[in-house]
Each structure stands twice: as structure tokens, then as C-alpha cells.
Automatic annotation (TrEMBL):
Claim: Nucleotide-binding is one of the keywords in the record: no
Protein name (record): VanZ-like domain-containing protein
Pfam families recorded: VanZ (PF04892)
Keyword Cell cycle in annotation: no
InterPro entries: VanZ-like
Species in which this protein is naturally found: Floricoccus penangensis
Residue ranges of every copy of the VanZ-like domain listed in the record: 80-185
TM region positions: 6-26, 47-64, 70-90, 117-134, 140-161, 168-186
Keyword annotations: Membrane, Transmembrane, Transmembrane helix
Length: 194
């Protein structure tokens, strides 16, 4: 019975990964010429992204079912996540330097802006979950805001993007979701021993 559950979990992981990459992540990443050119050099980019996300989701489901988090899984998933986050945050613009003080600039009828806003939330959920393993809520707020401000400052200072208050808001919301999810899951999973 457990094998059937895991096969169904794998199929659902693949389906969710396909939908997220095909309709959310890939169209947004492709809208940046530098990333689009880089992704075009490797014909299996989309497949690799779907496969990576599927494996991470499936292994997370297995750990959920076993009620135990593997440190090896955390290392693997964190490494892949941080690498992809670095690529998305620091390689999408060749030379771009701007400041946006409009906190709600993502509220537009433009589909690209809405997709990017959703991704800004999703991108930082795993980071919030990582902080949730050891930080209390006050430490989390400080660490998350310092990290997000650091990312935005680096993007601006090194001509890699826009220092945007809306990104800070969306990234913090994503981190908060991840942090809360980690705390809720921590009640079911054995993460205190990590």
C-alpha cells in the first residue's frame, strides 16, 4: 500500500512541477533576454527544472509520510534551491540599475507582473522554512529582512536589477509563509533533532 501511495505522490509531484514550471516559472524567466539566451543554450532546461522540482516535492512528501526529516535531503534541497535562487536573482539582468519605491507596483493587469509577483513569493518560501528550523519568530523577522535587504542592495549596487520595495514585501511574505509552514510541519515531523 505504501508503494502505491509513493507512486501516486510521485505522479502528483510531476504534475505540480510541470504546471509550475510550464505556466509560471519558465514564461517569467524567458522574459529576461539574458536568462532566455542562457536557457536556450541547454535544450533540456525546462525538463531539468521539472525533474528537480518533482524530486524535491516527492522526497518532501515521503518525509512527511514517514514523519521524519532527513538532514541529507535538507542539504540537497537547500543546495539546489540556493543555486537556483542565485541564478534567478543575480543573472537575469546584464546591466540594470534602478530603484522602485512603489510597494504595490505588481498590482497591474499585466500577466507578466502578476506571474513575477507570485514567483517572488514562492522563491523565498524555502528560505523562510530554512530559518524556521532554529529561529524564533523575532529572530526570523530580523534575519529575513536583513537577507532580503541584502539581496536587493546587491542587485542595485552591482547593476544586476532593481532595488524594489515591492520585492522586499513579496519576498518577506514568501519567507513568512515558509517560516510558518516549517513551524506547522515541525509539529508533525521530527525536526527538533536537526
Amino acid at each position: 500500500m505504501r508503494i502505491i501511495k509513493y507512486i501516486i505522490g510521485l505522479l502528483i509531484s510531476v504534475l505540480v512541477s510541470y504546471l509550475v514550471i510550464e505556466y509560471l516559472a519558465y514564461p517569467t524567466l524567458s522574459s529576461y533576454p539574458r536568462l532566455s539566451n542562457t536557457m536556450a543554450r541547454f535544450p533540456y532546461t525546462k525538463f531539468t527544472l521539472i525533474l528537480s522540482l518533482s524530486i524535491c516535492l516527492w522526497l518532501a512528501y515521503i518525509q512527511w509520510d514517514l514523519k521524519k526529516v532527513s538532514v541529507i535531503y535538507l542539504y540537497l534541497a537547500s543546495t539546489v534551491y540556493l543555486f537556483l535562487l542565485f541564478v534567478v536573482l543575480f543573472t537575469k539582468a546584464k546591466s540594470y540599475h534602478d530603484i522602485s519605491l512603489d510597494v504595490f507596483d505588481f498590482i497591474k493587469p499585466d500577466q507578466r507582473d502578476i506571474r513575477e509577483a507570485i514567483l517572488n513569493v514562492i522563491y523565498f518560501m524555502p528560505l523562510g522554512a530554512i530559518y524556521g528550523f532554529k529561529a524564533n519568530k523575532y529572530e526570523f523577522v530580523v534575519i529575513a529582512l536583513v537577507t532580503i535587504l541584502g539581496v536587493e542592495t546587491i542587485q542595485y549596487a552591482f547593476y544586476l536589477g532593481t532595488f524594489a520595495l515591492s520585492d522586499i514585501l513579496l519576498n518577506f511574505i514568501g519567507s513568512s509563509f515558509g517560516f510558518a509552514l516549517c513551524k506547522v510541519l515541525g509539529k508533525r515531523l521530527d525536526i527538533e533533532s536537526l
